[in-house]
Design goal:
heterodimer; A: alpha+beta; outer membrane lipoprotein receptor (LolB), chain A; Protein Transport Mog1p, Chain A; twelve-stranded mixed sheet; eight-stranded antiparallel sheet; B: mainly alpha; two-stranded antiparallel sheet
């Protein structure tokens, strides 16, 4: 009897040891130290901005906590910023790449070539050809750590950048770079970027709203192989049974909207931010600020404003006062200023709600 | 001993009755889809079901996706839970152990029998799915050049399609090994086959539920059901191996740990029935 009990203890000890080893292994691998490196922040930024032509293949995940108060027509964009998006990417350059958004039951692939894009939607069985537009709604490729990181760093000043530690991402040592916007109006607290020192590629980007503990947007690579992917992976020919569609011409839509837009002379400065021009933005829309602190102001006809007003007021966090209604989704603020029977204003951007209210007061025709 | 266990399993009418019931659901779905021409909207319903109206030869995959989340694991849990506890309840376990082969070999033989059951079941579901799919729906002509379209919209040759389908079947079989190991382990703990099967199912229900919770995402990679649907990744182009490889490794870990626990418990247990 004693021998049997002894045998039982020995056998269970073997099992216990096996389980303990398996439990400890992942944390041991995760705790592997990464080299902080001694490259200054400005040098890392330059390397990141020069990485657009670095070829790679990889697998990335982006997780957003932004509940955008938008209408049903923009659910794709809303999902992009509020859900977990898994992306496979093959990158040869800004005009030659393929990004697949992978879901449990299918995928939506964007194949970019110099002349435009093919978008393949497996579950809908559609292949859509689009032409490059200077202004377009955000799509999955914009959320890749590499693309988003370059975009956020593109206008950063050196005094806004500092070095943070290092961590391992996708099996690589990544060096930390912190961007803290200097504009008082900014609603972004900080952006933490983690870069591959050899290629300059941003491997992870975390965007924090002012005062927030958790990232409002976190996008990172899970796997990454450097080197140009084969061009046959990037190429796309619509399959015979697919429905072939043509994407609406964005530039044409913007031009039409421009014709109907009310004519308003917007001020040259709002909430301490200076007005600027951006490619593709029609003159009726005012864009203010720089880097990651941007504010856009668009005059809209009263009938368009009505629908937006209902959507914004439905948000539990909406602030409603005499000026109008404003809502913040993480670092993104949105405000509607209505004037009965007259042109309304939509203000949106990465600025605080107070900055939105201050900007609204300076708009033509709005009582201060 | 392994041959004896296999013979015993496949001679039981209830084994074949289980397989028949498992096939009934995909066949019913196929008939309903054929009659109504209504497939789930993109993003809803089991993978590949939306595509069967245009290509019936994809129905074996849709059939597997239909039985995979619930029906198949229930069947596996029942068979695995019955393996040792069933003998104990029937009072035949101590006679089995009189044979000189030993308890460890008996456990291995029981596991092999459960694996054989899973393999046969999955093959039958796929075969019935193929026959039903190509009979009820338009199947693209299967020539050497045109096998079908991958999830990524590229063409697959017939050879590629058959190869990937067989790999998917193999992957589904491996995915069920974790369930089988839970069932077998619980089966050595109790003399009630029902309790063992329900124990294994409780683990699966918990795992499926936790997988849907964002708050449980730190433990998601370790949930036994986490990578079950990764067989879809075999039909992307290029194949996305990441989750498939992780799924295989995870099942390997579960089978290894649970078999070790079953062995530690069973080889030192007082068998009185």
């Amino acid at each position: 009897m004693a021998a049997r009990a002894h045998g039982a203890i020995r056998r269970w000890a073997v099992v216990g040891l096996l389980v303990a080893t398996l439990l400890v292994l992942p944390s041991l691998v995760g705790a592997l130290p990464a080299d902080v490196g001694d490259a200054p922040a400005a040098e890392l930024r330059t390397a990141a901005l020069a990485s657009a032509d670095v070829g790679f293949s990889g697998y990335a995940v982006s997780a957003g906590g932004l509940a955008l108060p938008v209408s049903d027509r923009l659910t794709d964009v809303a999902d992009l910023f509020s859900d977990r998006t898994l992306m496979r990417v093959w990158w040869r350059g800004p005009t030659e790449h393929r990004v697949d958004v992978v879901t449990a039951a299918g995928e939506t692939d964007v194949h970019r070539d110099p002349a435009g894009t093919w978008t393949w939607d497996f579950e809908a069985g559609t292949a859509t050809r689009g032409v490059p537009a200077s202004l377009a709604l955000p799509t999955a490729p914009d959320l890749l750590p590499s693309s988003l990181g370059r975009r956020l760093l593109s206008e950063a000043h050196d005094d806004e950048l500092s070095r943070t530690g290092a961590r391992r991402i996708a099996g690589r040592e990544a060096q930390g770079l912190r961007l803290v916007p200097s504009d008082a109006a900014s609603s972004v607290g900080r952006v933490d970027l983690w870069l591959d020192p050899a290629s300059g590629l941003p491997l992870q980007v975390e965007v924090y709203a002012e005062g927030a503990e958790h990232a409002a947007l976190d996008t990172r690579f899970l796997d990454l192989d450097l080197g140009d992917p084969p061009s046959r992976v990037l190429a796309f020919t619509p399959p015979a049974e697919a429905r072939v569609l043509t994407a609406p011409d964005t530039d044409d839509l913007i031009a039409q909207a421009e014709q109907r837009a009310p004519l308003v002379a917007l001020p040259s400065q709002l909430a301490g931010l200076t007005r600027r021009t951006l490619d593709g933005v029609p003159p009726a829309v005012g864009v203010y600020g720089r880097g990651i602190t941007l504010l856009a102001v668009a005059p809209v006809p009263p009938r368009v404003a009505g629908g937006l007003d209902t959507t914004l007021r439905a948000s539990p966090d909406a602030v409603v006062d005499a000026q109008g209604v404003r809502v913040a989704a993480g670092p993104l603020g949105l405000m509607l200023v209505e004037r009965p029977g007259r042109t309304a204003y939509v203000l949106t951007g990465t600025v605080s709600l107070d900055a939105l209210a201050e900007a609204a007061r300076r708009l033509p025709g709005v009582p201060t | 001993m392994i041959a004896v266990e296999l013979r015993k399993l496949f001679r039981r009418p209830r084994t074949w009755a289980t397989i028949a019931v498992l096939n009934a659901l995909p066949v019913l779905v196929a008939v309903l889809v054929r009659l109504t021409d209504l497939v789930p909207r993109p993003g809803e319903g089991p993978p590949f079901l939306s595509a069967v109206l245009t290509n019936g030869s994809l129905f074996p995959l849709a059939a597997l996706a239909i039985v995979l989340p619930l029906f198949l694991p229930i069947a596996v849990a029942v068979v695995a839970g019955d393996s040792v506890a069933g003998e104990a309840q029937a009072g035949t376990l101590r006679y089995l152990l009189v044979r000189p082969a030993g308890r460890t070999l008996l456990l291995v033989a029981k596991l092999v029998a459960v694996v054989a059951f899973v393999l046969v079941t999955v093959l039958v579901v796929a075969a019935v799915g193929y026959v039903v799919g190509t009979t009820l729906f338009d199947a693209q002509p299967l020539t050497a050049a045109t096998g079908g379209t991958s999830v990524s919209g590229t063409g697959l040759t017939q050879q590629e399609l058959v190869g990937r389908t067989l790999t998917a079947i193999g992957y589904v079989v491996v995915s069920m090994l974790g369930v089988a190991a839970f069932g077998l382990f619980f089966s050595t703990l109790t003399d009630s086959p029902l309790a063992a099967a329900l124990g294994a199912l409780a683990v699966l229900v918990a795992s499926s539920l936790l997988f849907t919770l964002d708050a449980a995402s730190p433990i998601a990679p370790y949930l036994p059901t986490r990578y079950w649907l990764a067989f879809v990744d075999l039909f992307r182009d290029p194949i996305l191996w990441r989750d498939v490889v992780r799924g295989l490794a995870l099942q390997g870990v579960y089978v290894g740990v649970l078999l070790a626990a079953a062995w530690a418990n069973f080889t030192t247990k007082d068998v009185t029935s």
